[in-house]
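call fold(seq) -> tokens
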Amino acid sequence: MARRFRRLERRQVHGFEVVVAAGPLSRLLGLALLDRHRAPEGLLIPRCRSVHTYGMRFPLDLLFLGPDCQPLIAVREVGPGHRVRVPEADSVLELPSDWDVEKWDRSVTGEADAASA
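ret:
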């Protein structure tokens, strides 16, 4: 993982271990300028309604979350050079687009992992 994330808080959000971008620099940079292999599993940006993908080297899935981290809107495979805004959102979860969609579905619906059943 990139050095700039090492001191940031980590949190479990919908089954993913994500880094929390709480400071101004981590919020501004996000996952920009990183190769995919150096990016964390995800990045949570609290108190955020708008995301830009300037400087991205891989596509992102943006999951806009409500007050209790409930999913509001998912915008899939956002490439570099875009801005996405959801006025109702309280935070944004940025995930590299190659994440495990089934893991998200199980977490959001509360279903047990079929492999462990």
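The CA atoms of residues 51 and 84 lie 5 Å apart.
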